[in-house]
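Researcher: Batch entry, complex prediction.
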Amino acid sequence: MKLWLARQRYLIDFTLASLARRKTRNLGLLFVYTVLVFMLASVTLYSHALRQEAARVLANSPEVIVQRMVAGRHDLIPPGYIEKIGRIRGVQTREARLWGYYYDAVTKANYTFMVPAQGAPAGGEIIVGPALERSRGLAKNNGISFRSYSGKLHTFVVADVLPQASELVSADLVLMSDESFRAFFDYPAGHYTDIALSVANPLEVRNVALKLAAALPDARPILREEVLRTYASIFDWREGIVLALLSAAILAFGILAWDKASGLSAEEKREIGILKAIGWETGDVISMKFWEGLLVSLTAFLLGFVAAYAHVFHFAASLFGPVLKGWAVLYPRFQLTPQIDGLQVATLFFFTVVPYAAAVLVPIWKAAITDPDSVMRG
Amino acid sequence: MRPADRALIFLTLAGAGFATCFLDATRLRAAAANDANGMATLVARLHLTDLALFTEARYTRHPSQADLHSPFQDHPQALEHFPTGSLIAPPAGLTRTTSEVGAGETAK
Amino acid sequence: MIELSAIRKAFNQGRENEFWALDGIDLHIEAQKVTALRGPSGSGKTTLLTLVGCLARPTEGRVRLAGEDISGLPERFLTEIRRRRFGFVFQQFNLIKGLSALDNIILPAYPTGQPRKQLLERAEELLARLKLGHRRAAKVEWLSGGEQQRVAICRALINDPELLIADEPTANLDSHLAREFMAILEALAGDGRSILLSSHDPLVTGSEVVDRLVEMRDGRIVDDR
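Model: C-alpha cells for the complex:
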C-alpha cells in the first residue's frame, strides 16, 4: 500500500510536469472546463432550488381556487354564489378573495392589488410589497396616488411594507381594505374575484373538485397540486431552455477536450515508448494518464461546483438569474434556500468528469500496448 | 514540496470546499426551516397562489390563475412578445374547456 | 551472464514483406566485460540489443539470463527485469523533452516507488561523476548533444543495472565528444559493470576498452574476437 502510494505520487509528479510543458494550453483548457461546470452547476442548482422553494412556499396556498367562467372567460363571483359551495362535504372554509391588477404608468410596472382576508389595513391605507417600496421610493407613512381605471385619483397612506425576506411571493403586492379596493376599481358590491377553499383532507381534494364541477357547472376549480405542478414545469422548461442554449458550448468544449485528450501526438507516442523502454509497465503509463485526466477533470468539477454554489446561493445567481427568473420591471430580490439534489450532482459529475477521463485514457490504452522496442527501431 | 503533494493538497482543499457547500446548504436550510422569512405564513394568510417572479404583464403574474384566453392571446400555444410567454407552458388545466371539466372530470 | 541460443527474429511474419532480421544467433555475453557488436546498418545489431535488453522477444530460440529462460516470460516480468537489470543509452538519447535533466534521470526509478530523497541523492552522485551537476535543473532540450548523452547515461545507471546497453552511442557525436564518451565507458568498465554496445564507429570498435568484438552481417555472427 505504501509502495503503491509512493508510485502514484511519482506518476502524479510526472503527469504534472508533462502538463506544465504546455502550460497556457492546459490552464486554458482547465479554465474553460471549470467555467462550463460552473454554468451547468449554476443552472441545475438554481432551478432545483427554485422548484423546491416554490413547492415549499406554495404548500401553504389554498387547496382549491374556484373561478367562475362566463362565455369561457374568467368572470366575477356574483352574490350568493359562495353559499352554494358550503354544502359540499370536506370543505373546511371558503373565503371569497378580492384581487386585481393595476398598471402603474409611472414605473411601467404591474402591481397586484389585493384585499387580505385577515389583517387588512384601514380604509385609505395600504401595505406595499418590497419591490414597490424600491421602485416608487416609498416608506412607511408616505402618501401615494394611483389613478384608477375610471380616471379618478386615489391617495393612500403606506401603513406598512411587507418584509423584504418574503419578496419572492410579495414583491408587487398592494394590500388594501375591502372598501378601498371596491372604490378604486368600481368593483360591484357583493361581487368577488374568486373563492379560496380549504380542504382538510388532501385525499378529498379531487372529490371536492368533482363535486364543485357538478354543482357549479360554470366554475373552474384550480387545485393546489396543479399549481405546484405548473411551477415545477415552468422551471423545468427554463432549465431546459438554458441548457439548450448551453448545449452549443458543451458540444464545442466536447470537441476541444476530445481533440486535446484523444489526439495523441507523435511525440506523446514516442514518449510512451521511451517510458516503456526504460522500465515503466503498461499499467504505470495508463495510471499516469489516468491521473492526468482525473486531476484536470476533478479540479474543474470541484472548482466549478463550489463557484456555482457561491454564485447561486450567496450572490443570488446574478449572472443568469434573469433568464431563469423572468424579465420584468419589478424584479423580486431574494436569496434562495440551498437545496442540493444529490442525484443531480452525481449526474453532473458523471457527465463532466468521466467523459474527459475516458477521452484521455482510450488512446493511451492503444498506444501503451505497443512494443517498447519501437524506440530503438524508430 | 513535491508537485504531486501540492496537487493532492489542492485537490483535498477543493474537495473540502465541495463538502463545505453541502454543510453550508444544511445550515441555511435549517435557518429557513422555521420560516424565518415569514414567506409560508404570508402565503397562508393572504391565500397567495403564485410566485411574484413574472410581473412583466398582467397575465404572467399568476400563471396558475390565468384567464382561459388572456395569456396566450389567440391560441393556447401562441407565442407572444414577453419572454415569460415563450418560456412557460400553459397550466395543463387551462388547455381544457369548461365543458370537459363540467362533464365530470376535474382539470388535470 | 546472458546466453542466446539459436535466436531468430522475424518482422512482419507471415506477410509479404516478411523479413528475418536475425537468423540463427548463438552468443554468450559475459559479465563484467565490454562487448561490442559491429556491422553495417541492417546487419541486425540493434535487433539483437532489443532481444538482450528484453525490449522484444525472439521469434525462435532462447534467451537465458543467469541460467533462467526469459524468452517466454510475459510482458510484465520482462519490464521488471528490464528495469532492474538493464540500463539503456539510445542512439537518439530519447530524453523526455520539457523535463529537467534531474527529472529525466530519476524517471526509470518511478515505478519502484523508492523514497524520492534517496533517488535524488543517487542522481546527484551520477551527475557529479559525469561532471554535469551544474546542468541539473536545465531542460534537456537546452543541453548540447554531449550533455544530453551524459544525461542519458545517468538515466541508464539510476537503477544500478548489471548491464549497460548502448546503441550506436557515438553516432550523434563529433570525435571529441566520442572520445569523451569512451573515457566514461572506460571508467564504468573499471567499476566492473558489464557493457554491451553496437557501433560501426572505428573509434569505438577499435578502442582498447572493448574486450570483445562481435562482427555481424545479414543477421548472423561472422566473426567473434
